[in-house]
Specification:
The complex is a heterodimer. Chain A is mostly beta strands. Chain A is 0% helix and 53% strand. The chains are: A mainly beta, B mainly beta.
Chain lengths: 113, 111
């Protein structure tokens, strides 16, 4: 049973517009959420995280929103740039991540010029 | 700069052979992890360690083992390789409440 779900395998967005990637989870014990970006033949690179005590966290062009009642989080990228084209993974954990992360299947973001 | 390195980057072996994948980190992190990535599954946790002499099973640990003799290294061993273990393997490290840093992966093919 998948505890972290990314229901959009791919997303195409025009350069300069907003990219919104979505993630749903089922385990109410998750208290730490992260987004990773992955290019082919490289490891995942950490983008941004949010703790369950917050509902928003910003870092430059990246903002993560957490809706605990809906068990939903989203990553907003504004404005989208060509270098943002990659696979984005949503991940979650209990207890701050010491026991490992549970990943979604990923969303392939394509930024169109 | 601190980093995490995996070796080899690519490996081809035969079913039934023992295979060991290396992971070395210079972050001085206590926590280390092994994941595998397969099409349609994202990354799944194989084993993890909180520190020297500590190891724990993850979601997909059958057929794999790890050992932690120092802070820097967590080698992953496939005792008897099976074709179902063909995958891309990622090692990661972190401190608790901090994001995990990943290596660039090992692509393992078992024929």
């Amino acid at each position: 049973d998948q505890q972290v779900k990314q229901n959009s395998p791919s997303l195409s967005v025009q350069e300069g517009r907003i990219s919104i990637l979505n993630c749903d989870y089922t385990n109410s014990m998750f208290d730490y959420f992260l987004w990773y970006k992955k290019y082919p033949a490289e490891g995942p690179t950490f983008l941004i995280s949010i703790s369950s005590i917050k509902d928003k966290n910003e870092d430059g062009r990246f903002t993560v929103f957490l809706n605990k009642s809906a068990k939903h989080l989203s990553l907003h990228i504004v404005p989208s740039q060509p270098g943002d084209s990659a696979v984005y993974f949503c991940a979650a954990s209990e207890g701050g991540g010491a026991d490992g992360l549970t990943f979604g299947k990923g969303t392939h973001l394509i930024i169109q010029p | 700069d601190a980093e995490i390195t995996q070796s080899p980057r690519h490996k081809i072996t035969e079913t039934g052979r023992q295979v060991t994948l290396a992971c070395h980190q210079t972050w001085n992190h206590n926590n280390m992890f092994w994941y595998r990535q397969d099409l349609g599954h994202g990354l799944r946790l194989i084993h993890y360690s909180y520190g020297v002499q500590d190891t724990n099973k993850g979601e997909v640990s059958d057929g794999y083992s790890v050992s932690r003799s120092n802070t820097e290294d967590l080698p992953l061993t496939l005792e008897s390789a099976a074709s179902s273990q063909t995958s891309v393997y990622f090692c990661a490290s972190s401190e608790t409440l901090q994001p995990q840093h990943f290596g660039d992966g090992t692509r393992l093919s078992i024929l």
